[in-house]
Amino acid sequence: MKKKFLPIITLLLLSPLCGELLSSSSPPVEFFNPSTLLLFGALYGCGALLIREVVHRWNKGWASIFILGMAYGIFEEGVVVRSFFNPAWMDLGILGMYGRWMGVNWV
């Protein structure tokens, strides 16, 4: 039983760690807040579990993991977080004026 849930717990904890903390998108004080960690675990961890399960059931390899990971990243940033379409997105800074075309932030 413990061996079965170890990969699930690892993905739920490791994916937000790599996505937010190592990229320095979230400072450690904000990241280790229990509510923020739960939110990041839901966003990144559940996406990683979904990709793992789909690749396992379809009997695919690393290329499928990479492609599904890119698709999930585009979906999460573009649709869920809406950073692709918000002209006042805080992470753009001065580049927000130059990297916008057809209503999309291309930076």
Descriptive notes:
The chain has 107 residues and is mainly α. The protein has 4 helices and 2 strands; from the N terminus they run ααααββ. The protein has helices spanning 2-21, 28-31, 34-58, 62-80; strands at residues 100-101, 104-105. Strands 1-2 form a two-stranded antiparallel sheet. Helix 1 (2-21) crosses helix 3 (34-58). It starts with a helix and ends with a strand. The mean pLDDT is 87.
For the largest beta sheet, what order do the strands appear in spatially?
A: 1-2
Q: Class by helix and strand content?
A: mainly alpha
**Percent helix:** 55-70%
SS element count, helices: 4
Beta-sheet strand percentage? Answer: under 5%
Overall geometry comes to flat
Distance between the termini: 45 Å
Radius of gyration: 16 Å
Low-confidence stretches: none
Oligomer: single chain
Overall average residue pLDDT: 87
Number of strands: 2
- Secondary-structure element sequence? HHHHEE
Largest sheet: 2 strands, antiparallel
